[in-house]
TrEMBL record:
It is an enzyme of class 3 (hydrolase). Gene3D superfamilies: Aspartate Aminotransferase, domain 1, Type I PLP-dependent aspartate aminotransferase-like (Major domain). It comes from the Bacteria. The keyword Cytoplasm does not apply. This is Kynureninase. Keywords: Hydrolase, Plasmid, Pyridine nucleotide biosynthesis, Pyridoxal phosphate. Pfam families: KYNU_C (PF22580). It catalyses: 3-hydroxy-L-kynurenine + H2O = 3-hydroxyanthranilate + L-alanine + H(+); L-kynurenine + H2O = anthranilate + L-alanine + H(+). Its cofactor is pyridoxal 5'-phosphate. The lineage of its organism: Bacteria, Pseudomonadati, Pseudomonadota, Alphaproteobacteria, Rhodobacterales. The keyword Hydrolase applies.
Length: 399
């Protein structure tokens, strides 16, 4: 598919985008693909309703985690048979880190950074207590110098959820390997947003979610990738029924399936996978270099326009696009209230504590017009001070 040319007018038409709304929060939850409603309805009517339990074989439900994993593999620089779907991202982080740690039995240190998504750190804090390991957390800029001969696993989110800062996956993986350690990469803010190349970077394990840039819907299942050199040696602590070599033999003892199949845990979320399958159709017409170029174009324009018209905001993302994912954040002392005022005016981004306005740019559906409209409305809100209303300061449960 190297000769593929991406038509972004066509990809935008594949999504339901409410009238009057500029949506810049696809890095948190992607919009609904137009095809998803019918795809899920057909699955429920033609498969679940008519086939009942026969759907596991006749409709291919049981194989869905592998089939869908192959569709995602192309987007992250992986090969067929190397990615499998299921469960939540936290569970996949637990599996990947525990498997990587077990492959380095003489070492105790798991290294991460303070820009990692907190839930990843929560998972590994608990895991480290259970397996007698030490979790060390350093500033993002200090990761390379913190890699030493005590390191077992380097666990990083490639694109920082708050700032958009992008780690150099290939360089840090090489440094970890030189020290005898393995790597686990969280691609939550990378998959479908930037040009990921897991095999090219020689990474060891990777995980990611599908409800952000991949547009699989709220609660869409996560994925996990294992480099082929580890696929038949990895032994995650969490061993589930679907990861057994013969699950329907109902043997009392666990025997891992071959390859990445052993990373399956529970019953696949079939309805959610149907929605995700519809979302992935659009990617059949997308060249990842085109996507990355469009992302840079949009984020560069946004930064330039904000800095020209919103002097009260301070850039909180790397200025160099090569060091940035597909999101941009700015700081403001009253960022939460400013974001609520923006949302009320039809510009949807989100807030991250303590003072960050965060905007995600999804090239599949965001345009230069979205950039200009969002900046124009934000400049007016800041200039007029219309964000300073009581209702905009009231914190909701989800920010």
């Amino acid at each position: 598919m190297t000769d593929l040319s991406t038509d972004f007018t066509r990809t935008r038409a594949a999504f339901h985008l409410p009238s009057g709304v500029t949506y810049l929060d696809g890095n948190s939850l992607g919009p609904m693909p137009v095809a998803a409603r019918d795809r899920v309805a057909a699955m429920m009517q033609d498969e679940w309703a008519q086939m009942l339990i026969r759907g596991w074989n006749e409709a291919g439900w049981y194989a869905q985690p592998r089939v869908t994993g192959d569709r995602i593999a192309r987007l992250i620089g992986a090969g067929d048979g190397q990615v499998v779907m299921g469960d939540t991202l936290s569970i996949k982080v637990f599996q990947a880190v525990s498997a990587a740690r077990a492959l380095r039995p003489g070492r105790r240190v798991i290294l991460s950074d303070s820009g990692n998504f907190p839930s990843d750190l929560y998972v590994v804090q608990g895991l480290a207590r259970a397996i007698d390991s030490d979790l060390r957390v350093v500033e993002p800029e200090a990761v390379a110098e913190a890699i030493d001969d005590d390191l077992a696993v380097l666990m990083l989110t490639e694109v920082d959820y708050r700032t958009g800062r992008r780690h150099d996956m290939a360089a840090l993986t090489a440094a970890a390997h030189d020290a005898g350690a393995l790597t686990v990469w969280d691609l939550a803010h990378s998959a479908g947003a930037v040009d990921v190349d897991l095999l090219g970077a020689d990474a060891d394990f990777a995980v990611g979610c599908t409800y952000k840039y991949l547009n699989g819907g709220p609660g869409a299942p996560a994925f996990i990738w294992t480099h082929p050199r580890h696929a038949d040696a990895a032994q995650p602590i969490l061993q589930g029924w679907m990861g057994h070599a013969a699950p329907f033999a109902f043997q009392p003892d666990y025997e891992p399936a071959g390859g990445v199949e052993r990373m399956r845990v529970g019953t696949p979320p079939v309805i959610a996978l149907a929605a995700l399958d519809a979302a992935l159709d659009v990617w059949d017409h997308v060249a990842m270099p085109d996507l990355r170029a469009r992302s840079i174009e949009l984020t560069e324009a946004f930064i330039a326009q904000v800095e020209a018209s919103c002097p009260d905001l301070t850039l909180n993302s790397p200025r160099d696009p090569a060091r940035r994912g597909s999101q941009v954040s700015f700081r403001h002392p009253q960022a939460y209230a400013v974001m609520q005022a923006l949302i009320a005016q039809g510009v949807i981004g989100d807030f991250r504590a303590p003072d960050v306005l965060r905007f995600g740019f999804a090239p599949l559906y965001n345009t230069a017009e979205d950039v200009s409209r969002a900046v124009g409305i934000m400049a007016r809100i800041l200039r007029e001070g219309s964000w300073d209303r009581q209702e905009y300061h009231a914190r909701a449960a989800v920010t």
